[in-house]
Specification:
Elements: E1 8-10, H1 20-28, E2 32-35, E3 38-41, H2 44-55, H3 62-67, H4 75-89, H5 91-103, H6 109-120, H7 127-139
Antiparallel strand pairs: 1-3, 2-3
Length: 147
């Protein structure tokens, strides 16, 4: 779903690894929704949540992930969920990812705006989070000149 940037998949995708029984249970519990031969999560934000939990196990940073494909609007929810999970589970990596996203000239504005929204919404910013904001402001990224 993420690679295709679509919120549904053909139900045949889940025919492997004996997932048919699991699909039936997930549909009966309304976690997955069936529309003909297509399956989707019950809500886009649940897809983003599931994606983020899976993504944390990857050995990849967000800049690599985002620059490896088109940076469409579809990616905003994924970035928000990954950052929310990182902040809860690995503060050091959260700060690294935030800084990398904000200073990378290859990251599109609408995704940087998501990062800033996540920072704005922090109820209790840590000293490390304040420090990353100061570092980013001090670097005055050229990509910010159009903001």
């Amino acid at each position: 779903m993420s690679n295709r940037q679509q919120l549904f998949v053909p139900d045949s995708v889940l025919d492997t690894d004996d997932l048919a029984a699991s699909v039936k249970v997930l549909v009966s519990e309304n976690v997955l929704v069936r529309d003909g031969r297509k399956l989707a999560f019950f809500h886009e934000s649940f897809f983003d949540y599931a994606f983020a939990r899976n993504w944390l196990g990857r050995n990849e940073n967000l800049v690599e992930f985002l620059t490896g494909a088109e940076q469409e609007l579809f990616r905003r929810g994924q970035v928000r969920q990954v950052l929310d999970h990182l902040r809860e589970q690995d503060e050091e990596r959260f700060v690294e990812e935030v800084e990398a996203l904000l200073i990378a000239p290859s990251i599109r504005y609408h995704l940087k705006e998501v990062v800033l929204a996540v920072l704005r919404g922090l109820p209790d910013p840590t000293p490390a989070e304040w420090a990353v904001v100061a570092r980013v402001l001090d670097t005055r990224p050229r990509s910010w000149s159009s903001w």
